[in-house]
């Protein structure tokens, strides 16, 4: 089974400190946690100044409860597959990542992880699923830029991030 501790080390390499780029649709972000996500966990009264001071404990809680658990990654057999999947959830939202994965594995695309989705992830050819999902992510980010050219400044970083993931049994 996949291990969040292994993933969190990888994720930390991709996520930096506080940023508030006017072109980033996520707005104010620290360690990849947007202000709206932070507020959903710790209260609507939280501000960007509070987000700047996010603790490791808060960050780890958000990662576990808000992304890892929603993707049911504890039940994914292959660590590489769990990593690239939860990374997309963290970067693009859980429902988006789940729907993209469901499209790859050929189950009903409903944005919910149930027994059928988990069985299809775990019982399919792991390397093939990984490679198809990786390509789906690349296409997804290219389509964002195609629809909204202001996002082009983020494309190289997104692609570098996706391409940093390598399959291992």
Looking at this protein, list some descriptive labels:
single chain; about 170 residues; mainly alpha; Chitosanase, subunit A, domain 1; two-stranded antiparallel ribbon; about 65% helix
Entry summary:
The protein has 169 residues and is mainly α. The protein has nine helices and two strands.
What does this structure look like?
This protein is an all-alpha fold and 169 residues long. It starts with a helix and ends in a 6-residue tail after the last helix. It has helices at 4-14, 35-42, 48-52, 56-68, 79-92, 94-105, 115-123, 126-147, 152-163, and strands spanning 29-30, 33-34. The chain has a single domain (4-163), classed as Chitosanase, subunit A, domain 1 (Up-down Bundle). A two-stranded antiparallel ribbon has the order 1-2. It contains nine helices and two strands. A hairpin with a 2-residue loop joins strand 1 and strand 2.
């Amino acid at each position: 089974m996949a291990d969040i501790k292994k993933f969190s080390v990888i994720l930390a390499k991709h996520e930096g400190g506080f940023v508030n780029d006017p072109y980033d649709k996520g707005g104010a972000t620290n360690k990849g946690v947007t202000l709206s996500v932070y507020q959903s966990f710790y209260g609507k009264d939280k501000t960007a100044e509070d987000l700047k001071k996010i603790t490791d404990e808060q960050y780890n809680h958000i990662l576990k409860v808000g992304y890892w658990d929603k993707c049911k990654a504890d039940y994914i057999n292959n660590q590489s597959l769990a990593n690239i999947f939860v990374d997309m959830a963290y970067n693009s939202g859980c429902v988006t990542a789940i729907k993209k994965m469901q499209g790859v594995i050929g189950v009903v695309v409903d944005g919910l992880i149930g027994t059928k989705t988990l069985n299809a992830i775990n019982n399919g050819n792991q390397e093939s699923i990984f490679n198809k999902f990786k390509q789906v992510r690349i296409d997804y980010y290219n389509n964002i830029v195609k629809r909204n050219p202001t996002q082009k400044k983020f494309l190289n970083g997104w692609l570098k991030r996706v391409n940093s993931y390598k399959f291992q049994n």
